[in-house]
Amino acid sequence: MSDQNLTLKACYQHYRRGLSQTEIAANLRLSRFQVARLLRAGLEEGYVTVKILEPARWHPELERAIEERFGLKAVIVVDNDGLEEEEVKLRVADAAGRYLIDLLEDGDVLGISLGSTVQALIDQLPDRIRKEVEVVQLIGGSSRMESELNSMILAAQLARRFGSRSHLLFAPALVSRGDLRESLLADGTIEATFAMFSRLTVAVLGVGAFAQGGTSRLVYGEIVDDALFPKLLARGAVGDVLSYVYRDDGTVLAGGVEDRLIAISLDDVLRVPHRIAVAAGRAKARAIAGALRGGFVNVLVTDSAAAAAICEQTEGAGAAKATG
Q: What is the CATH number of domain 3-44?
């Protein structure tokens, strides 16, 4: 039998009939090494072609480009198909929820921030997730009743999904004076929740677009007043994570609200092994890019329009330093 015939027989039995190399070796009275060589030859000679059917909503090129540019652990990009903003947000939230469930293990400590996409993620999780996970609120609450603006509500909702304990911050996100902040941080209940920050293994973070007409919870939630907002914009503010405002290059703007903020510190955020940004929409691309440059997050779940805009805006720009 010619080498060509042997190659064709081996390829037919492997790819059409699904036989293992051991079974083919027995049928053709060859060694497994010889069968492996024949299968490799089938690919090299073009007798066999491999076609990967990519899902319509998968964007590996965008994922790889952003992952490599910013040194991220993972990037998930879902297709927005020209859908309305809320529909895109739901797709991103669903993908983020699936990633989160796969990532979490028994014993993990999960931190949760706030925002409409974070709220959508929680809403789309199964009612009961059978993993032993503790949930920690990362930033104080809000007087606004919308749950997306109140991280205490979100943390409690998330903990119920796991049937687990939640560590809450019984305090507002922002207080009027720095000395009042210090007094609240000395409270035993708040102090106990702050002590959990060093144990965090995963954090889910929203990204606010800090621009005129943007989506930052700082603005929409009326945390930043009308006088401070334009001043921050004039100093180059593009977005915020956990109410820490930053520029395009990811540097944090001092003189914002951080001295009155009751939230996890950025140093503690950067120590969390998995920092997942959940953000959707082309309008958020600049804010997301700034968060990536700042290293605030190392996992990104977003949509194709936002991902494409991030790639366009950061083409040729320096990548963020890897922060783990």
A: 1.10.10
Mean pLDDT taken over the chain? 87
**Would you list the domain boundaries of the chain?**
3-44, 60-313
3-44 and 60-313 share one CATH topology?
Answer: no
Q: Which residues contact 198 (CB under 8 A, 6 or more apart)?
A: 268, 271
Q: Residues 13-40, buried b or exposed e (16+ Cβ, 10 A)? A: bbeeeebebeebbeebebeeebbbbbbe
CATH architecture of 60-313: 3-Layer(aba) Sandwich (3.40)
Q: What is the DSSP string of 230-247?
A: HHHHHTT--EEETTEEE-
- pLDDT tens for residues 297-315? 999 999 999 999 999 998 8
* pTM summary value: 0.79
**Burial (Cβ within 10 Å: 0-12, 13-18, ≥19) of residue 78:** buried
CA dihedral 155, 157, 161, 162 (to 10 degrees): 30
**Number of alpha helices (DSSP H) and beta strands (DSSP E) in the chain:** 14, 10
Rg (CA), the chain: 25
Name the residue with tokens 């010619």: 2
Beta-carbon-side half-sphere exposure of residue 18 (alpha carbons within 13 Å)? 0
